[in-house]
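worker-03 picked up job from queue 'complexes'. Input manifest follows; two sequence lines, order preserved.
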Amino acid sequence: MKAYKALTKEELVQLKGELEKAYADVKGKGLKLDMSRGKPAATQLDMTMDIMDVFDSSSELKTEGGMDCRNYGQVDGIPEAKKLMGDMIGVPAENVIVCGNASLTIMYDTISRSMTHGVLGSTPWCKLDKVKFLCPVPGYDRHFGITEHFGIEMINIPMTSDGPDMDMVEKYVSEDPAVKGIWCVPKYSNPQGVTYSDETVKRFAALKPAAEDFRIFWDNAYAVHHLYEEEQDSLLEILSECKKAGNPDMVYEFCSTSKVSFAGSGIAAVASSEKNLEWFRKSMTIQTIGYDKINQLRHVKYFKNAQGVAAHMKKHADLLRPKFEAVLNVLEEELGGLEIGSWIKPRGGYFVCFEAMEGCAAQIIEKCKEAGVILTKAGAPYPYGKDPKDSVIRIAPSFPTPEEMAQATDLFVLCVKLVSVQKLLEACA
Amino acid sequence: MKAYKALTKEELVQLKGELEKAYADVKGKGLKLDMSRGKPAATQLDMTMDIMDVFDSSSELKTEGGMDCRNYGQVDGIPEAKKLMGDMIGVPAENVIVCGNASLTIMYDTISRSMTHGVLGSTPWCKLDKVKFLCPVPGYDRHFGITEHFGIEMINIPMTSDGPDMDMVEKYVSEDPAVKGIWCVPKYSNPQGVTYSDETVKRFAALKPAAEDFRIFWDNAYAVHHLYEEEQDSLLEILSECKKAGNPDMVYEFCSTSKVSFAGSGIAAVASSEKNLEWFRKSMTIQTIGYDKINQLRHVKYFKNAQGVAAHMKKHADLLRPKFEAVLNVLEEELGGLEIGSWIKPRGGYFVCFEAMEGCAAQIIEKCKEAGVILTKAGAPYPYGKDPKDSVIRIAPSFPTPEEMAQATDLFVLCVKLVSVQKLLEACA
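worker-03 finished. Artifact:
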């Protein structure tokens, strides 16, 4: 295929006419597809339905230690759930607190607590003139939503194929005491699918923060969410790296079974140093008498251990892979060589990230919407919803079927072409 | 029985000797009982075990409207759970948000949100020099724990048999703009079992707060927790009263099924005006993608409606009543007429509140503990754990068996007598 920028004005005008006709045809089909959120499909959720058989009215809802899971108590989670979640991310059970159904809530509560009570006795952030967070971009919109909600200033850090630009991270963290945290999705990152390299993790662990209450918010959301059995990314375990580097308290790690069991009814956990967890417990003891321990026990009985989780995730992968490949194939076939966009083939996670020509993303998304395909809002992967180059588009293949994904991606590439041609023609004018 | 204060010094000395001997005997028995927390007994939790049969792997986990409860979404709860919880407290479903497993967490989050974001756009409380809460006493220690945790100054308001002293409440609320809230357990109050009179509720609804962001925290924890079928307290519905009085936004009402289904795995809700709920949702949308909807649906399928809840609570009452009566009978038989303590016979809720002679509570609790019976810590029902008269003791009969309760109360009355005699002798000296 010939790159669009190598086309003459006349060729572009002709192409534009053809694309407009094709777009009008697709529009007539009345598509109605949603690729906006990383939601599991019903068929994927069906794979966990056996978990509903784990307990019945004759079950003894007790932990191995004899605790009655039906009653109040055990604010930081049952021991066996700590072990299960710890094993999923390679962290000892004693460094884990298991909470309710969403790691997002733990992250929100962690920021909220830092605002009102500080971090290990530091000045509460709400008493400071300025609090800043580093935000590797593109990133996860709900992370940025939390920091924005609390009036925390967000600073974009570009992502590379090894993770965030660590030169920039080191500079900000070591020089500016107002920088209190950084949002990371270190494995199969949202939305690019990038896994941080060992060197990146080591540089994170070795940070020398200007602020004593600086913390890495390590959202290991896709720890076990591989797409291919043979080509799995691996991630250095950050807690032990931080410990080795003399920064044992510098990281909070989050994980959940939201995309392992049920998106709305999983269990979530935070892992950190004993000192940090003790600080968490001080507030948690005021906030709750205990999270839902029956659901914690249900997950333990169902998955049994990390091997059980891995076996389950293989089934998910078999379902998800064709959806991802449907997208990637169409992208490759239709856009390969045109030089009007780029993308990374992810080995896990929930997204394909498409980078369009500068200034094109919002229009592409709008065109897709007009023809019935909903994509994540333009700018969503950036703080304040502002993509400075207006070029990044997050595609979430998990919810539709592979056939629907192929259909939706056909429309998508058509819109990419159309908007790109218009852009190039504008440049000619 | 002759009142202790009518005894001569010699009679008191002799009595003291007898009581000390009896105490030494009981101590030798090696009792080990816990009456400290309002925890349901295992037999009570067993009554809800059928809820574990509501779903199995073949269930369709959908709402009537077709929403898949397994997936993300519906941040404020499924419609049928809103209706169930609303019916329990006499509030329309549209005024209800259903959350996770604990109303305590909703209350904590509500205060936390007010600290960081204010109330309907008011100045965040963390930016104010002083925030105060009114605390009817004796009250619930976990309420006071929340306000203490956030550095909110707590002001004691004495309870009467009709509810809090409303003259004081009106004065504080209308005169001091730093007073931002009041903790209430309006029905079968913790720990006294008092239900607010209609006049009290109306006076609450008609408050004229100096602070625009003053709110009543109406913890209707025992809305359906009657002990007797024939003698049930009833409580005026506060939301509609506030609306009638022109204060539609002044109250947040909380409730849960913690003491209906499972203490650790129930569902909890908050009810308020549409304006307040909209404000809640603004933060909730950032904090979570949705609470555990499967557990919400499980509760709806199990209880069906408010009648189902009421029928279930009748079974609880049959189990709890003998425990309460065991306590009340011993108190009456052993302490009636001695004038060394008083108590109210509750018609619902989870506690019996004993008022000892001034300066005796801590010692009575200590003596009980020495002989193997754990009571709620002295001072717990007061802000900062400080009972100004050192006289209130909260007894929680729900966890032990009736026989154990009788045994424990035997020890309790013995300790009351012993400490009271000592006190009276000190007064003679």
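worker-03 released lock.
Chain A touches chain B through 57 residues (CB under 8 Å).
The radius of gyration of chain A is 23 Å.
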